[in-house]
Design a protein that fits this description.
361 residues; 7-stranded mixed sheet; two-stranded antiparallel sheet; 11 helices
């Protein structure tokens, strides 16, 4: 039934046409009886556009795999975590300590002027956050830089002074002892690095409920939504002197900026464009320092959590404080934590429970 069509005889085309007609008749009869036809070519049923799409997906995945391996080999690490007597036990879920370093040592004089930052070379931080990921979704908790907490070996002072005095290890230990949370992972982003990441993304979209003008940070924005470049985004996140909420207002803008950057890095415009992905990754890796054992898989998980929070799928809050502007001799204006509220918040995170409903977005 399935034999090939015989070639036309050299002597008679009429005989060939008759044989061909009989062959097609036998083939139709065989199909009507359920007999298998000649084998079809694999994938021949796919529309050409779908075949093209599959090829593009394979190329993107291959490019993404190469970028992943390349990025893994270019991660910068720092000693940030260490065991010590009295360290909190591991809880449920994963806790990242996220730090924004405002050291000016890497900036040129022109960059300091453009970014409206001072000339001090001291190691410092304007941004300290704990990102908890667990069964109830991600929770991002801001610890204001003026939080008044005990710093091991240095007495009670502003929390950001732990970073200035002892770098990542002392800051991590200070946060662990103040919160009772064991920090599992550490990530630090520099001043200049954040600017370069935002510029590599082509800017980020940020929205203001009311105008913001702060001469010290360089912020001067009307109310509404706009796309900000790197220097503008930094000025927006650093502004606090013109904000009646001071450091508490600034931490909300910091969370908004981090969410916008995470959203931009995970956008299809970046992920489906390997050359652009490479540029963004170059900037991110130059800006980022992580603890000794952190890897790309964990960083990607952290990025997904940050994007989920930016999209409203998680919770963002600030540790409860007594009131802004408490003066302490020899220290200045500080933010003491409200003990009961802070304890409830951190206990919920330790046990991977839902945080108290008073948490503010």
């Amino acid at each position: 039934m399935g034999r090939p069509i015989p070639p036309p005889p050299a002597s008679s085309s009429t005989t060939y046409r008759a044989e061909r007609a009989r062959w097609w008749h036998r083939r139709r009869v065989a199909r009507s009886l359920g007999a298998p036809g000649p084998p079809r070519r694999r994938w021949s049923w796919l529309p050409p556009t779908l075949v093209t799409l599959l090829v593009l997906v394979i190329l993107v995945v291959a490019g993404g795999a190469w970028l992943y391996i390349w990025a893994e080999g270019n991660l910068r690490h720092v000693a940030a975590l260490g065991d010590y007597a009295g360290r909190p036990a591991a809880g449920k879920g994963t806790n990242w300590l996220l730090v924004g370093s405002d050291s000016r040592s890497e900036l040129t004089p022109q960059q300091r002027r453009d970014l409206h930052v001072g000339n001090g070379r001291v190691q410092n931080t304007d941004t300290i956050m704990v990102l908890h990921s667990g069964d109830h979704g991600p929770t991002l908790v801001s610890l204001p830089r003026d939080s008044y907490v005990p710093i091991p070996g240095h007495g009670s002072r502003k929390i950001n002074e732990a970073f200035a005095d002892g770098g990542p290890q002392l800051l991590t230990r200070t946060v662990e002892q103040a919160t009772g949370l064991r920090i599992d992972r550490y990530a630090e982003v520099s001043f200049l690095g954040l600017v370069q990441v935002v510029d590599a993304l082509g800017g980020v979209r940020l929205c203001l409920d009311e105008p913001l003008k702060d001469e010290k940070s360089g912020a001067d924005f009307p109310a509404g939504c706009r796309r900000m470049n790197g220097p503008q985004a930094l000025a927006y996140a650093r502004a606090r002197y013109a904000d009646p909420n001071g450091d508490l207002g600034r931490v909300k803008r910091q969370r908004q900026l981090i969410g916008a950057v995470a959203d931009g890095m995970a956008s299809s415009d970046v992920l489906l464009d390997p050359p652009r992905s490479k540029r963004v990754l170059d900037a991110a890796l130059a800006a980022l320092t992580v603890d000794e054992d952190a890897d790309m898989a964990q960083l990607l998980g952290m990025g997904r959590s940050m994007r989920q929070i930016a999209g409203g799928g998680g919770t963002a809050t600030t540790v409860p404080v007594v009131r802004p502007g408490v003066m302490v001799g020899g220290v200045g204006s500080v933010l003491p934590w409200e003990e009961n509220g802070a304890n409830r918040l951190f206990q919920a995170l330790r046990e991977d429970d839902r945080i108290p409903t008073s948490a503010d977005k």
